[in-house]
Specification:
single chain, alpha+beta, Alpha-Beta Plaits, eight-stranded mixed beta barrel, 26 helices
Length: about 725
């Protein structure tokens, strides 16, 4: 039971480690009864712990029904064992529930989430607390059972001894009537010789209806599925025939109303004058525990909010469908559904309202899928549907029905009425489907994303060689890699020198910082591989913060060497639109004590034009602190010169597409020359990008460009090896 329980809890709450601990009799030690580790899937034991070593934690666990620690490394309750237990195992969050018997904590059920911090939901806390109560009940019942079995053995010896004293008989009778476990005595023919009140209460008989009756025929005639149970197979009969006790962990007995109850029992022979004269049956009603186990199994497979199947069970169904498609040439269809405008409900009326909408809408969706199809909640406002033995034409009709049902659904709360839409991604599952359930579901998710991009409340069917989906799917793979790289510092700052053209260095050097990703094999991945995905999935603001933070840290650590350098850092359009970004940037300048005059921020022409007023305000605020600005990729826009006078920048960085051919293309030469002249008139210095050879550099000197940047003058190097 312990191993089953820890495994089910781990699967239900999606945690890596679940363990059960019990105090010893002295309460000076607490011992691990079972530790389930999800990866690898195994059961083990953990070392004994002493509560005196962790007083804050054990004092806290005594006071509540459940202890939820979202951030284990910073919460005072858990810091006592952070160094010895949490950090070595990468544990970021805890959810623990005490086991109580008669008001006293006798043990703890512990869930440990490996990874970053995690917010525990109320339904997760209630689930774990219920399981802990269930385990405490079982432990208490088990202790009663052991004492009753000891009592039964004593009773057998009393029956075997002719000279047993009357006081002992009375004592045993008192125990029999006061115990909560059923006790039935039988003779060699299985006729009832005695029965206590607990047994009669559980079975619904009175004493006169049982005494003298064949107990096997009365209460043990059949198994749970009504298959007849032969007398010779009864453990009561076997205990008399073989002369020793038997235990049954799971069996049924039949009541007077012909209903079965689940029981755990022991059967021991009784003696008279040294000969076996009968047997005693001691049993406890396990129906509630069996129901609890069934409920736990249900919770492990179903979503607690909607009652639909959950992600874990849906994955199992999807795996079976894939195997059926490949081995039996079956055809199925998978839907990935994401509600549109659901966030409006949460933001307007709160998460409880959002939960209520999901419950009601789940009932609507369930009515629209075919009998035998599988509908599941995959998480948040996302649903999955598996249509078995279905072709794309049928699936299209079902998807339209679901879309129409969602569109017609109205959610009323207080004085508000909400409507939502749904975007659906469709993938056909055939013998030719590639990969496992994760890959197929990921394709459906990508198709759903494209449906949203097409205008929301749309349906997108995945086809092999779908170029849009392939691009988007490829970008989605980069998303997790980018997030992992930022979290684990798998990005590296590179530096590329910017050099003066046709004149010596004036004492102030220039360098631009660039970012590279460190690949799985240690290779450097250029930004062109991952920046498009970061832009598409709104990660640029977070990436900009990482680059600025690590650049400022590098400048602080190399303050003396970089004292006469201006460092250029790129800022994306997404960061310009982030209302908190400017405050965060100013805070970082102050935190690292960086001289603002040594920093030049680069903003692309496209980003500046996209939100001109915001860009102007952003530039002015930072220039007031002493920062400099460069307008990057200048010269390719249709209105470059018309808005340039409104942007208070210091440098124009001429787009490399114009620069790289100026040695051979007269038009490009003229355009670069014109940009340089405009810059001169406005008092701006010019920087040419993509300077790849000496011929280009000579043309730039002829035009009068101030600075050059490119592989022809200086290649990017890691900041670790950069020498000013």
């Amino acid at each position: 039971l312990l191993a089953y329980t820890t495994e089910v809890v781990a699967r239900t709450l999606r945690v890596e480690r679940v363990s059960l601990w019990l105090f010893d009799e002295t309460r000076e030690k607490i011992e691990c009864q079972d530790l389930f580790r999800h990866k690898p899937c195994e059961h083990a034991r953990a070392p004994v712990r002493h509560p005196a070593d962790f007083p804050v934690y054990f004092d806290t666990i005594e006071k509540g029904r459940c202890l939820a620690v979202d951030d284990a490394l910073s919460d005072p309750v858990a810091t006592e064992f952070a160094e010895v237990h949490l950090k070595p195992r990468g544990i970021g969050a805890l959810l623990d529930a005490p086991l109580r018997m008669a008001g006293q904590v006798v043990g703890i059920l512990c869930c440990e989430h490996v990874g970053e911090s995690r917010h525990w939901r109320l339904d997760e806390e209630n689930f774990l607390a219920s399981v802990a109560d269930y385990l405490a009940l079982n432990i208490e019942t088990d202790e009663h059972r052991r004492s009753r079995e000891a009592l039964a053995c004593s009773l057998s010896k009393v029956h075997a001894a002719e000279d047993a004293c009357h006081d002992l008989h009375e004592y045993i009778d008192t125990l029999m009537e006061s115990t909560s476990e059923g006790i039935i005595g039988v003779d060699r023919d299985l006729r009832c010789t005695f029965v206590n009140q607990a047994a009669m209460d559980m079975l619904g008989f009175i004493a006169g209806e049982m005494q003298g009756r064949d107990i096997h025929r009365l209460i043990q005639h059949s198994s749970k599925d009504n298959k007849p149970l032969q007398k010779k197979d009864s453990k009561i009969v076997r205990s008399m025939n073989e002369g020793h006790g038997f235990r049954a962990e799971s069996a049924v007995l039949w009541t007077k109303s012909n209903h079965c109850i689940h029981v755990r029992y022991s059967a021991n022979p009784t003696y008279e004058r040294g000969e076996i004269s009968g047997a005693v049956l001691v049993f406890c009603n396990m129906s509630e525990s069996v129901a609890m186990a069934s409920q736990m199994d249900y919770l492990a497979r179903h979503d607690a909010l909607t009652g639909l199947l959950n992600r874990y069970e849906f994955d199992q169904c999807l795996n079976k469908a894939l195997k059926g498609a490949k081995s039996k040439d079956e055809r199925h269809v998978l839907f990935y559904m994401d509600l549109d405008q659901f966030k409006v409900v949460n933001d307007t009326s709160g998460h409880l309202a959002g939960d209520e909408l999901l419950k009601l809408l789940s009932q609507v969706l369930q009515k629209e899928v075919r009998n035998g199809d599988t509908l599941a909640r995959l998480g948040g406002d996302e649903f999955g549907v598996l249509l078995k033995n279905c072709d794309l034409n049928q699936a299209w009709q079902v998807s339209k029905k679901l879309q129409r049902a969602v569109r017609n659904f109205r959610f009323h709360i207080e004085d508000k009425t909400f409507s939502v839409g749904v975007s659906i991604g469709i993938v056909e599952i055939t013998a030719y489907s590639q990969g496992d359930d994760v890959n197929v579901l990921s394709l459906a998710d990508s198709a759903c994303f494209l449906a949203k991009e097409e205008g929301r409340n749309r349906i997108h069917i995945y086809h092999r060689n779908d170029e849009d989906l392939a691009r988007q799917h490829g970008e989605m793979q980069w998303v997790s890699r980018i997030q992992k790289a930022m979290e684990q510092d798998l990005l590296e700052i590179f530096c590329q020198r910017i050099v003066p053209v046709g004149r010596p260095n004036d004492g102030i050097g220039h360098v631009e910082v660039l970012v590279r990703m460190i690949g799985e094999n240690g290779e450097m991945i250029p930004p062109g591989a991952f920046i498009p995905a970061a832009e598409h999935y709104n990660l640029m603001s977070e990436l900009d913060r990482w680059v600025i933070n690590h650049t400022f840290a590098w400048l602080r650590d190399n303050r003396q060497n970089m004292a006469h350098m201006i460092t250029a850092i790129n800022i994306s359009g997404q960061s310009l639109g982030d209302e908190h970004f400017l405050d965060d940037l100013i805070a970082m300048l102050s935190s690292y004590d960086i001289a603002a005059s040594s920093i030049c921020f680069e903003i692309t022409e496209t980003a500046a034009v996209g939100n001109l007023s915001r860009a102007i305000s952003f530039i002015k605020d930072l220039k007031s602190l002493g920062c400099k600005f460069a307008l990057d990729d200048f010269g390719t826009g249709m209105s470059s010169f018309s808005y340039l006078k409104n942007l208070p920048v210091d440098y124009l960085k001429i787009d490399g597409s114009l620069v790289k051919d100026i040695a051979t293309d007269a038009v490009n030469f003229s355009m670069v020359e014109a940009i340089n002249q405009v810059g001169r008139v406005m008092g701006l210095q010019t920087i040419a990008e993509f300077v790849e050879n000496q011929a280009i550099l000579e043309k730039l000197e002829e035009i009068g460009i101030d600075y050059a940047q490119g592989f022809g003058v200086a290649r990017p190097v890691s900041s670790k090896h950069f020498l000013p």
